[in-house]
């Protein structure tokens, strides 16, 4: 896809009438709306403002690239505006901006769109090209310039491919990344590569952009590098760089000061990365920067463990659910319903995939805290919890315990001679980390198991009214952040209760988690005139995701209209969770959506009815509350 597929004559303003930053953003957004590229101009402008609050998109050299990725965009597009006199845009270099490129990426934009948008930033690095844009007379001239630049860049890339791998020059590696991953990421990468080439160095740059990691650094790349540069405002896996001279900076430094970063990286005076400290990336990782500290560290670590655990839960849970189709006891060799294939499904899903849940949960909680050295101690502690009866509670404790044990070990061993640095990750951290975590878990597994038994006994003793209240709370929690920490906390509690033999909480969490996407999908059907074509299309997908118990299917709607969507979803999910337990239904399968409904404990029809009622309530509340679409 070419840039000129997104930048068209009807999105070009040759002479902006604006005199301030706010005015130019309004004017460009208005041009996109007039060209039919936006379905909600106000929501798009809000998304643009949120991005500007993170850091200015005035990158210097007279250029500004405001951008946002949101469902308020009907069709991905670029708006171009030019101001000959210049506008004060709070640019990085403090100079007025003359060339403005407003990027509108839809929430469902594919990689081809996003990669095309990222090309834009690379072209603007060349001063002659910027001068030609300033001299252009018509929108057609602007489009012709981009077509010529794309052709020239393709020729240069082909020539560069033929000269790679000479191995004669000093090598450097770098990683760039910004919160949105559309503009700054690639501008910093190209700025670094261009300056490295000018200074006589070979450089490979990994970009952590919106389309994922591109040009990934290999172990060999890092080993051969004389220095490493990390110019990023997003989390970067730093573990591969341990023992290397490392320069860290915001992504804007990669754009504004590539020479300074490169000279520091090759000077031999850059600090050697030792895996922890108070570096720029460490602040991002631990949430110490004010703008990044939106969630407590506890929740970030928990989320990391749960997100890595979920594939095991989903895969194992679906296989267990499929085994139920042959009979609820078909996996039991002693049952008359026994079926060999069902037994195989249940063994793979329950005896293997599900058995890894707690070790993976604990391992990746520890990984989040202490990076790679925390993984083994955390997984071992989690396995001890799983096999001793300590269950999920024990797994959580093991994960956090192992993570902070390894953090402590890093501090204890930081003064070892540099010649022993290589022993830390392969010997010292695993041996001492597993030993300390294992001994601690050995001592506390039994008390934790007793606590789990007490919790299970209390839940089993609840009367109907208390169960309904529990269902309301768990159902509502599933909808508050749609896959976030509150959702995961409720879901983890449901899984823990399955592990303990109580199937009521999981029935409430699965039913409540199905409601948000189903409610949004139903709203796009019942109130179709209030939704764009793209949203109605997303609604069809949400039917499938909701039926499959993938609460995240409602996120595109929540991102565009968070307050109305979340409040509507919480109400519907809470009603569903309460009804599910009022009807006395339980669920022994950890996942599966509609695939496991025939096998709930209690009435499957009443369970389905509770989901339908909640989805209908959510759809009606949101549909009536939502503002009508503005006419184009």
TrEMBL record:
GO CC annotation terms, alphabetical: cytoplasm; plasma membrane
Recorded coiled-coil stretches: none
PTS EIIC type-2 domain location: 298-625
InterPro entries, A to Z: Bacterial_PTS_Sugar_Transport, PTrfase/Anion_transptr, PTS_EIIA_type-2_dom, PTS_EIIB-like_sf, PTS_EIIB_2, PTS_EIIB_2/3, PTS_EIIC_2, PTS_IIA_fruc
Primary localization class, coarse: membrane
Keywords, alphabetical: Cell membrane, Membrane, Phosphoprotein, Phosphotransferase system, Sugar transport, Transferase, Transmembrane, Transmembrane helix, Transport
GO molecular function, one term: protein-N(PI)-phosphohistidine-fructose phosphotransferase system transporter activity
GO term, biological process aspect, one: phosphoenolpyruvate-dependent sugar phosphotransferase system
A Pfam family reported for this protein in Swiss-Prot or TrEMBL: PTS_EIIA_2
Domain called PTS EIIA type-2: residue spans: 5-149
Domain PTS EIIB type-2: 172-267
Cellular compartment(s): Cell inner membrane; Cytoplasm
Record bears the keyword Oxidoreductase: no
Record's bilayer topology term: Multi-pass membrane protein
Annotated TM spans: 309-328, 348-367, 379-406, 426-444, 465-483, 565-584, 604-625
Protein name listed in UniProt: PTS system D-fructose-specific IIA component (F1P-forming) (Frc family) /PTS system D-fructose-specific IIB component (F1P-forming) (Frc family) /PTS system D-fructose-specific IIC component (F1P-f...
The species this protein was found in: Scopulibacillus darangshiensis
